[in-house]
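for the writeup, i need someone to sanity check this before i put it in the appendix. the sequnce is what the collaborator sent (i think, or maybe the updated version? ugh). structure was predicted straight from it, no edits. if anything looks off just tell me and ill rerun, i have time this weekend
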Amino acid sequence: KDILFWSSILSVPLGLTTLFLITHTNRSLGIPDAAFVFGDDVILTVLGQIASLPTLVLAARLCPPGVEAVLFATLMSVNNGASAIGTELGAILTSALGITETDNSNLGLLTVICNFTSLYPLFFIGWLDGVGDVSQAEVEDD
């Protein structure tokens, strides 16, 4: 639960590094656009994968023996469905803010909104209280 909380909190400032590219701050720091995009993308992808580990560990702890593959497939399906919904909501928000290929004036605002919406799941983190506290050995003993 703590790892999930802190990875969500840390994802916001890391995701906001895109603002450096939007405002060309990276150029004033001497970092070319291509290098910044590559580095930013690699770092955020790796950290995103690390942030998903607590969810997988929690699923493994809750999973009854023999249905691990089904649970993992279901978890990945939910993850992919949420990603598709997020993409569509992002497209709607992009359109609502009037961002086009020729007008990027609200792109910074879109970036800020999208990054701060990643904190929404923290409202539900209390649902995880006590979940996964029992070890597999204790479950098997019962």
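The mean pLDDT is 85. DSSP finds seven helices and no strands in the chain.
thx in advance!!
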